[in-house]
């Protein structure tokens, strides 16, 4: 089967991290796979991910859309249509709203199938994607995403996100105590993701202010998120400057070594108010690190049977603080915790995920 995945970028995020596991696995299953990256994306982080995909037998094409340029917006649609016509895959699998629309335009009038993967619960569509992707087959990244969906189609399926075990179970360890000059006896809690509103880092500040414990350090792996739309509400995101007055909040930026960072930390924390099936939480599960996950359906649906995983009873700082102290004070090593989770985690391996994607593609092609 000839498959094209269309994504906005290869920088950090759940979509990109799924692509880095799913696409090479589809190649290993014997399929010809290409990735089209729509946006201008020249970060060293992204280039390293592109190189990884190419070394895995994947063809990667960049269209270099300038996000704030309206002319570039439509030029990229035209470039995507030409490229998809040239590649002539059996199916285009889009990820993210802009790419859903660009993919629908790219396959219009052609004998090429299109399906959308929904990566949020819910993924909010305006009038344009609703029209352009009417009745397009949908893959939801988790059971929660399917339950909380804002879209409908005659062909829908939930395929839980998966992890490539060798990408997360690494021997390397980042010593954040040394990197950040933190006393060895202090505890380190890692959060993963940009400062987009759904990650809820303003709540992390409330936790830190209530906790008043400078011996527990919170380290964020992720970049700054800004609203690009004209007239956008600048309160929709939290500026990195807001963290600077807190001595125990550390901004690590985009990292290609998150698994090694988790290996050197005491706990993983998510304050998110909305997710799909969070890849970073799966990374926490597979690394063996104790985890504290916010009380949302997207987390409670996957936390069952996961040892040393704590879900606070409410979105209240004190409730989270209690769970954080439980997590950082565990006596078990990451390896011991991972072994106790191993059987439960089999359902989140990428080989299962990739096979279910291919099975759904086949249903679409045989319709």
Integer average pLDDT: 92
Radius of gyration: 20 Å
Sketch the topology as an H/E string, one letter per element: EHEHEHEHEHEHEHHEHEEHEHEHEHHH
Structural class by secondary-structure content: alpha/beta
Count of DSSP E strands? Answer: 13
What global shape is seen? globular
As a percent range, the share of helical residues equals: 40-55%
Distance between the termini: 15 Å
What's the total helix number? 15
Main sheet summary:
7 strands, parallel
Into which percentage range does the β-strand content fall? 15-25%
> Uncertain runs with pLDDT below 50, 5 residues or more?
228-236
How would you write the strand order of the largest sheet? 3-2-1-4-5-6-7
Which labels suit this protein?
alpha/beta, 13 strands, single chain
Write a structural description.
This protein is globular. α3 crosses α4 and α9 crosses α13 (317-328). The two termini are 15 Å apart. It has 367 residues and is α/β, with parallel strands linked by helices. It has a 7-stranded parallel β-sheet, with helices on both faces. It has a 6-stranded parallel β-sheet with strand order 10-9-8-11-12-13, with helices on both faces. The longest helix is centred in the N-terminal third of the chain and has 18 residues, at 70-87. It is built from 15 helices and 13 strands. It has helices spanning 14-28, 44-55, 70-87, 97-107, 127-132, 143-147, 165-168, 176-180, 201-211, 258-263, 279-287, 297-303, 317-328, 334-345, 350-365, and strands at 2-7, 32-39, 59-65, 91-95, 113-118, 138-140, 156-158, 187-192, 216-221, 249-253, 267-270, 291-293, 309-310.
């Amino acid at each position: 089967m000839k498959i094209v995945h269309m994504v906005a970028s290869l920088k950090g995020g759940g979509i990109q991290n799924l692509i880095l596991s799913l696409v090479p696995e589809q190649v290993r299953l014997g399929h010809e796979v290409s990735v089209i990256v729509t946006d201008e994306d020249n970060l060293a982080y992204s280039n390293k991910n592109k190189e990884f995909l190419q070394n895995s037998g994947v063809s990667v094409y960049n269209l270099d859309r300038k996000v704030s340029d309206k002319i570039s917006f439509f030029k990229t649609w035209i470039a995507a249509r030409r490229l998809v016509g040239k590649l002539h895959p059996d199916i285009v699998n889009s990820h993210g709203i802009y790419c859903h629309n660009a993919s629908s335009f790219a396959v219009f009038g052609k004998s090429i199938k299109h399906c959308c993967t929904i990566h949020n619960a819910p993924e909010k569509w305006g009038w344009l994607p609703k029209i352009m992707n009417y009745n397009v087959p949908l893959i939801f990244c988790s059971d929660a995403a399917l339950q909380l969906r804002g879209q409908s189609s005659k062909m829908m399926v939930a395929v839980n996100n998966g992890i490539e075990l060798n990408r997360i179970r690494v021997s390397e360890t980042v010593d954040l105590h040394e990197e950040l000059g933190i006393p060895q006896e202090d505890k380190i809690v890692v959060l993963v993701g940009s400062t987009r509103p759904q990650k809820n880092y303003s709540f992390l500040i409330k936790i830190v202010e209530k906790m008043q414990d400078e011996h527990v350090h919170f380290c964020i792996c992720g970049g700054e998120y800004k609203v690009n739309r004209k007239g956008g509400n600048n309160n929709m995101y939290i500026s990195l400057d807001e963290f600077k007055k807190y001595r125990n909040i550390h901004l690590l930026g985009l990292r290609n070594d998150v698994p090694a960072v988790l290996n050197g930390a005491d706990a993983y924390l998510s304050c998110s108010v909305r997710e799909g099936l969070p890849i970073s939480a799966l990374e926490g599960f597979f690394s063996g690190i104790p985890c504290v996950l916010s009380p949302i359906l997207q987390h409670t649906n996957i936390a069952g049977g996961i040892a040393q995983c704590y879900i606070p009873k409410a979105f209240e700082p004190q409730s989270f603080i209690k769970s954080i102290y439980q997590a950082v004070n565990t006596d078990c090593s990451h390896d011991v915790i991972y072994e106790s989770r191993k059987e439960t985690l089999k359902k989140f391996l990428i080989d299962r995920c990739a096979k279910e994607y291919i099975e759904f593609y086949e249903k679409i092609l045989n319709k």
